[in-house]
Structure formats: C-alpha cells, structure tokens
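Render this sequence as a predicted structure.
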Amino acid sequence: MHILPLGGAGTVTGSRFLVDVGRTRILVDCGLFQGLKNLRLRNWRPFPLDPGTLDAVVLTHAHLDHSGYLPVLVREGFRGPVHVTPPTAGLLPILLSDAGRIQEEDASYAGRKGFSKHDPPRPLFTAADAARAGEQIDPIPFGESFRVGSLELEFHRAGHILGAASLEVAHRSRGSVLFSGDLGRPHDLLLPAPAPRPAADRIVMESTYGDRVHEDEEVASQLAELVIRVSARGGVILIPTFAVGRAQTLAVVLWRLRQEGKIPHIPMFLDSPMAVEVSGVHQTYAHELRVPAREFDAALEAVAPVVSVQESKAIFGMNGPRIILAGAGMLTGGRILHHLVHFGSDPRNALLLVGFQAEGTRGRALVRGAESLRIHGAEVPIRLEVKRIEAFSGHADRTELLAWLRSGPPAAVSLVHGEPGPADALRRSIEVELGWEAEVAEEGRPLGAWAGSAETAR
C-alpha cells in the first residue's frame, strides 16, 4: 500500500493523501491550501495525476483545508463518489458553495481594482463548480464498513467538528492505515471525545498542537471576565468565529453564562449567514452533540442570527455594549473584517481569538502584536484589546494526541497537518515516551519504509 502526501505535509493546510494499491486508488481528503500566499498559490498548480484515475475521494470532515479543492478536482475530471459521514454530507455543500461565492467575489474585486495578473481575473472555482461536486457526495454512517475496489474502509468518530471522522483503510494483503483526520478534545463542550482508535499498521496523524498543552483553564469564567470588563467600559466584543463548531460552542457558553447571571444581558449577534445555516445542520444531528437538544436550540435563539447585509450594517449604528460573532475565524475574510474596520481603532472594544491562527493570517499577525492590519486594500489601525483563549480550540493538544495513540496497540506513525516545529516535537515525544517509530511526512515522499519506493502517480 503506497501512501503519498500531496498536501498537508509541513503545513496545517491543504490535506490530500493518495492511497494506491495498484488497481485501486483513492484520495483521502481534498483540501485547499490556506494562509501564506506561497501556500495559496499551490492551489493553482495542476493536480499531479489525472483525477479521472481516482476510484473515490474520502473526506475526514468538512473544513475547507480538508475538502475545499474538491470542486476543482471534479471540474478537472474526477467522476467517482465522495464518501463522507452523514453530518459532513449536510455541511459540505454549505461550505463549498460559500467558498465558491467568495472566490467569484474576490476575482470580481480584483478585476475592478486592476491588481490581478489575469485579464479578466478568474476564480479558482465557482459556486456552480461547488454544486457539481456536491452531486457526487455519498454519505456512509460511522462504524459501517464500506468498500472501494480492493480496499475496506470505516469511519470512526474524531470529535473536532460535527461529522469529523478518523478513517480506517485496510487491504487483505497490503496492510492497514488509520488516518486520524483532525482530532477533537476529550472534554469538548459541544462534541463527545474521539473514539478509541482501532489497530492499524500505520497511523497518519495530525500534529497541529504537537508541541504544546492547552492551558488548564476554565474557559467560561475567562469569557465572562472579558464580557464584564469590556461591557463596563461601554465597549463591543468581537469574536472571529469559525462557522462550523466554534460558533455553536460559543453560543452555548454565552447562553449558559447569561442564564446563570454571570454576564450582563447585552445584545448578542451571530453575524454569519453560513454559521446560521450550519447551525441548522447541527440541530438536524443533535444526537451527535453533548449538549441536550432543548438547551442547544435555546442557545441558538439567544444569539440573534444576522443574515442580510442590511442587518449586519445596522449593528454598527447601535449604542452600548454588544457581542458580535462573525466569520472568518482567522480573519481571512468575511463580515468580521467589516466590524474590525468599524470597531478596531477604539480601545474600549475587544477582539477575542478562540481558535488556531495559521501562519500568514491576520489572526496570527494579531497574536504577534500587530498594531495595524491591511483590510480591503487599506491599512487599519488596531487599538482595541486583543485576547486569546486557546482552550476553545477544536484540536487535541500534545498530551491528548499521545493519549489517543495509547488507546490502541503500537503502530508506526506519520505526522501530517502541522507546522514543522510542532510536528517534529510530537515525533520526538512519540519516539521517547511511547517507543514507537515516527516520522514527519514530506509532500511527494511516500510514507514509511513499508510504503516502498514505487512511483504512485501513473
């Protein structure tokens, strides 16, 4: 069994892994490269093999760094099924359609401003491309074995976001591999802990937080303290929010704090049409959540949904403290940027970062102390308070990753979906603490000695 990283190696983005056993060939994850410009440009490279030769694509979850290249792959000739879990089947069309719309808007804006090398500028893919890709989605329940050619596969719950899975891939004579996908935290507020992992010859595991341990902090109390402090000075709290998972978790925490009288009763908004739509998918699959359905519904109702542009602009004209949740979570786009332009220069206000901030994003720049950000072609001064609460992260930390590994028998480990420092730190931990063989994956190099040296791209 040959496993070749085509992305997601040496970076936390662009996850794509080719599994080739001769007559059967699948792609595990089909993600976009995001963050630094040199990474984003890799989305425009020709795919290194004929997409028509793939028997299937299997996605671990709906986040665009694992799914967002799919419309391009379909446009370029992939005609097979896209196997996903049922909740992912609900989320994926929403995320892909939104990404296609943004690609089209960015191309149009570049054309009007004249800063593209192309005339006219073109999007990487369109909303129509996303819709065509959606026609090939095939939902498979967790724990139900399915076949692609000579391979037998099965999804196992991974936490992280609704529908996220680890993927077991086995061949009767060529061994087995387990793709962790992105692993959630054992005590996540919204989702159950990742399932104990099954046995496998090799584990291809994420390493996003491979070099650190999340602070043992009571996130609700930290959030309450921030809301009390900022509202007392008449400020606005901006929370850049990932539409899937983070928005819903924050809604639940804020609702509980309000119910318990721990924060003042100030207006709260979810200013993200995509997050509003995604919340509906969460309600459909409420049985997958830790939060009781009735409580979850009440939390979503308490954080007022904002869909239209007019409603979003109306928030600017309000008086007094308020809490605004808006995408995108790393300040890479979306309505949060308009709010940051409007509120960012006032030191009474605050910006709360509650998730991983990838290299090259505005969120990472703020973590490093940036005093201005370039937004919509202009330099915007940042004078509001910036706070970070990493315990809201949907990724397992170093200790939790090692615990997940220990939940099954020893195996060789290949580390992916991590920046070089965290990935190598986790490699050392696995070798020293577990005594297992571990490597940091490299794009274009087959995984492990057992992967052999044969060229996998026909």
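Summary. The radius of gyration is 22 Å. Residues 402 and 430 are 7 Å apart (CA to CA).
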